[in-house]
Amino acid sequence: MTAARPSPVRVFAPLAKSPLLNRLDAEDADLAVLLAMTADPEPATVRALLSITAMPVADRVARALDDRTDLPLTSLALLVAHRPDAKRAKGTLRGRLFPDGAAPGTCHTFARTVAALAHQPASVDDANLSGERFRESAVAADPAVLGELLAPLLDADTLSDPAETGLIALLDARASRAPTAQVDLAATAALTRARRHRVRAGLIARREQTVRDLAHHTAGLTLAAELWFDAMTTAADTPAQASQALAMTEDAADTLASGGDLGCAWPAVRSRWQQVTAARTHPSGWEEAWQAAEATDDGARWDDTQRALVAGYDLLAEHVRTTWRSADVPPTPDECWAADPTGRMLLHIVADHLTGHQTHSPLPHYDDRLLIAFVHGLAKNGRDSIPAELHVTGLIAAIKAARSKAAILARAVPADLGIVVPMRAETQRLTRVLNGDNALTAKVAQLGWLLAAHPDARADLLLVDESTDCASAHAAAHAIQTNHPQIRVTITARPDDGSAKGGAVLWGLAELAGAGRTILAYTDLDLTYPLDQLGLHIAALDQPTVGAVIGSRRRPDSHGYYPPAGPAPTALLYQRAVRDLLQLDSTDPQAGFKAFPVAALRAALPLVTDQSLAFDSDLLAAIRRSNYTVAEVGIAALHQYVEGHRGTPRDYDAMLNAVHRQALRHGLDPDLRRTPTWDRIRHAGSLAAAAAARLTTTLLMPSTPR
User: Fold this and answer.
1) Tens digit of each residue's pLDDT (9 = 90 or more) over 190-225
2) What's the rounded Cα separation, in Å, for the pair 82 and 116?
3) Is 566 helix (H, G, I), strand (E, B) or coil?
4) What distance in Å separates the CA atoms of residue 194 and residue 206, rounded to the nearest whole number?
5) Phi-psi region of 623 (alpha: psi -120 to 50; beta: other; left: phi over 0)
């Protein structure tokens, strides 16, 4: 069978680009004239026909259009603007402009001038705009027709100098005697808009230089300066305000250097300026690492985004080498990068430069999976002998903190946070340790660094001690070293033997919601979850319908918690069972680092009854029942996995039984929906037995013959 030939592809070019409109062949010219006589007289068609340049075809087309009696108003104006000698069209246009009649000579000249002003303002004769006849015609013209004719100018964002001159002359003429009409209001708005655009164009042209000048006083950190400049550009709504803003940009660098007041009354701009002044106090230490990271060992040059990561890598690695070289026992990641003030400060220096260093930030260009892979590549190629790869964990935590801070910086509305920290037998973490801060002081420092990105942001840190001896509450009262202007720390003793963390968290969330906080979160007192990464949660909460955000340790862009092979089989099986029972599609439902919008919590908390260690899944299921979604963000945990080491003892079988009870309460009907993972665990007798049976089955499975 012979295949059918494909139909030829037909391409329809715009009429103005058609060869027949620009060739001298008599046959083509006749067709162009025929189109002028019979084609749809809409403005686009007339404009295309008038674009013919070949003579005498252009003259014939113009005469054919002038002979038509069905041209709409805009098409008439187009024809008169391009061909002022089109007598019939000019007369018709005059009749539309002056339905009650007027002096013939004056009307013809005015009609031709208005048509040219709308479509070819450069051709307007300025002498026609200043005479008494123009003024008389402007007053006598039908304002509705005048507005329709001038629509191309009245709707434009910018005006050429001739167009602006013509509109001003028209407004002046009409203002002398004519009552104000819609065309006058539209023309005034068009002139204001054009002037504002012209002044703002000068303001925008100044942006790069201003940001560069400010960077000299902020150690090169530019994101805050860029956001300030953009806020000022947005706030300048009038030409006078735009001129004021332009003057402020010229003085901004000197004002920042002297510590003076910007003198701006616009609240949004003042708030962004506070972010710039906060960057002015940035500590030193980066410049040497940046200079040293100019090129690789073999002489190749890094690009600026790679160089920023290399500089951060070297800075953090050198800190570990020099600080812990003689230590008998190297620190854990939380000790090195959270409790140790110097390590924490260096991590934040790196994060600040990754957040918004001029041209150097990799965040806009790469996702965290690629950045983490690059960091591992640096470690592999460098072959640095550093215990537990502390520098790798530190740099990845800095990347997460940088993205977190960038989210807070860019947020239009300052964060209003309430954070619950449950406590039970935490006195050891609240005691000051050698070469480091206690856990509470470290957490306040992490949160303070993050909130400094937005000076109007606020946080309530609520510590809830549910042990009967209240020892943790007493220790916490002595643990906090300094006050922070953006953070309020409240310590509450609420003894409850019937609770296992869940009661403290749920009570604390309800208290903070009642106090008016708009974003609620909870985390543990240990330093595994850095509070400087909380901006990741907040950015996710800004998405519509999101009612909870989990700081996951198990996403592909997470780091630091599990061994290279991933979570243990029992942990994975527990996760699958939770998904089975509660239909929660999350990688880490038990993570102790979650955030919620207050509206979702108010809807969900009445549905939560579980106060055990399994309360997380109950709360997430209640969020889902309240018609919200659950999101996850990958975090960098400051945790050191040790083979064979077990953390706080937990009865995961008891927790899973609690999850089963939650599922029944949240609507699970075993007869209608299968739960195969839960059924397998129940049949095996325990999570450990089910995981072992699964592992054995996988190992003993015979290979499939080829």
Assistant:
1) 888 888 787 778 888 889 999 989 988 887 778 889
2) 8
3) coil
4) 19
5) alpha
DSSP annotation of 337? I
Question: What is the torsional sign of CA 235, 240, 243, 249?
Answer: negative
Q: Among candidates 268, 532, 548, which has minimal Cα distance to 413?
A: 268
Q: Give 362's Cβ-side CA count (13 Å radius).
A: 26
Question: Which residues lie across from 633 on neighbouring strands?
Answer: 551
What are the φ and ψ backbone dihedral angles of 421, each rounded to 5 degrees?
A: -125, 105
Residue pLDDT, tens place only, 581-617: 999 989 999 899 999 999 999 999 999 999 988 999 9
Instruction: Show the DSSP H helices in 286-382 as ranges.
Output: 286-292, 304-324, 333-334, 341-356, 368-382
Query: What are the strands, taking DSSP E only, across 448-540?
Result: 458-465, 487-493, 519-523
Give the tokens for residue 33. 């004239």
At CB < 8 A and 24+ separation, what contacts does 382-390 make?
382/313, 382/317, 384/317, 386/317, 386/320, 386/321, 387/320, 387/324, 387/330, 388/330, 388/332, 388/333, 388/640, 390/316, 390/320, 390/324, 390/330, 390/331, 390/333, 390/336, 390/337
Q: Are 206 and 243 in contact (CB under 8 A)?
A: no
Contacts of 2 (CB under 8 A, 6+ apart): none
625: how many CB neighbours lie within 10 A of its CB? 14
H or E segment and range at residue 421: strand 416-423
* For the chain, counts of helices (H) and of strands (E): 32, 7
